[in-house]
Amino acid sequence: MSRTPKEKLVKPVATELTNYLKDGTINPQFIENQIQFKGIDKLQDLETIFKIHFVLSDEVVEFMKKLPRRVRRIKTERQKEVIQRRGEVRGKIDWSKTIRKQASSQDRSIFTCQNPSKNYDVPENLVLKKLLSIIYFVLENELKRPIEEDYEWLKGLRKEGDLINYLKNVYSKNVHINRIKDPEEYTVSERDLSKAQNSRKDFYKDAANLLCKYRRLIRGNYNKTELEELLNETLIMPGDTPTLFELYSVFGVLKKIESEGDENFQLKKIDKGSEEIAVFENEEKETKITVYHDSTGNERFFEKLEKLKEEDESRIEFLERFRKANVEHGELVSDMLDEDEGSIYGGRPDILIEYHEKGKLNKLLIGEVKYSEGKQVFKKGLKELIEYLYFVREKENNGKYHLNIKKEKPNLEELKGILIVDNKEFIENKTDETEHQPPFKLEIYDSKNLEDYLKTEKEEN
């Protein structure tokens, strides 16, 4: 049987990525390290994709096309500005105020005048400038490099190079637009939107409707199919399929945890700079599940060479020879290369999941992922996993091992190893026949097992 093709792995990864980004519950650094986007330098959360999706929409492109002829007819309101001047008169004199001011100040050179002016900060213009600012900053930031590279996924926007430059100039240089106050200085209210939607000018109606659409999108009211299509078109999945299979496995394990946890177990947002990729918490029970990828988390997978320098007559000859060979190697490396060959073992599992209860670690799950259906790679992965389980221990102060080999059971409530391979048909029904029972729990998954957890909503329905 052939291995699962890359194309079949991409869709579940893209779908789960959409879900986790939407909730902001997956470490953005993990995403940036594993997945790239065509022309998008950083993706901290799904809002970036929402903004791009909005600006690429047909309605926004059409709005931009009509902008050159519409922007000349910006609405203004005439207003009278009252100004006090000394020694000169500009505009119509307000005699009642002038006389009062001259009398109170004993200064007959002061005049209060009314100067007619134009007010640009009407509700319709506030809505318009807010919309233009959103489009402008997406074009200038998230879409700057994609536009320069002329990516295929820009769709209708690709043909509008002159229009894009025009919009940027209108927003930053147009004298009428610049007279409307900066969007950072105000919040568009529902009253402002209502005024624009009921305007006699289609220009303002369209602006209000688009701004409403943008707000709905940011709140999560979006067309899932369209958004996933954009994600699939902009995602650059790992070039090598084994790495993609690792991501497939990580998301599969996350979905498995979600499906098995009670409804009070919630995914939490990850703090910037954190090492974990996801955290589940149940505040009521004071329990927490922390998930790591390609990391040692709060555990230690490292053994110093110094341990082998202590002689022990009880060792059997083979282990004694192994000890001396490693010690000899370390001494020669130190003498000849002036380097410290300080370890006899070191590792970093593909998946590490820590279960804490009331601040104390009580369960530990270690996963090894191999994109293979062959026995040799299976044996290698199983060996690596077993070594992780035997050598893992508390990171702090060279802490104790989690597997107590003298009692032949874990010091924890549960220590489990998971080996994930692409296909395990060659061992089906054989795990139950094994007479040997290891001092830890062991589970073997393949892509078929994970597929049940990674089905899209459409497939489930």
Q: What is the strand tally?
A: 18
Globally, the shape reads elongated
Count of discrete domains: 4
Q: How much of the polypeptide forms β-strand, as a percent range?
A: 15-25%
What is the CA-based Rg, rounded? 33 Å
Largest sheet: 7 strands, mixed
Uncertain runs are: 456-461
The first-to-last residue Cα distance is 29 Å
Helix content: 40-55%
Counting H and I runs of at least 4 residues, what is the number of helices?
17
Mean pLDDT: 81
Structural class: alpha+beta
Spatial arrangement of strands, main beta sheet = 6-7-8-12-13-17-18
Describe the structure.
The strands form 6 sheets. A 7-stranded mixed beta sheet has the order 6-7-8-12-13-17-18. Strands 2-4-3 form a 3-stranded antiparallel beta sheet. Strands 1-5 form a two-stranded antiparallel sheet. It has 4 domains: 149 residues, no CATH class; 41 residues, no CATH class; 175 residues; 45 residues, no CATH class. The chain contains 17 helices and 18 strands. Helix content is 44%, strand content 19%. Strand 12 and strand 13 form a beta hairpin. Helix 6 crosses helix 8.
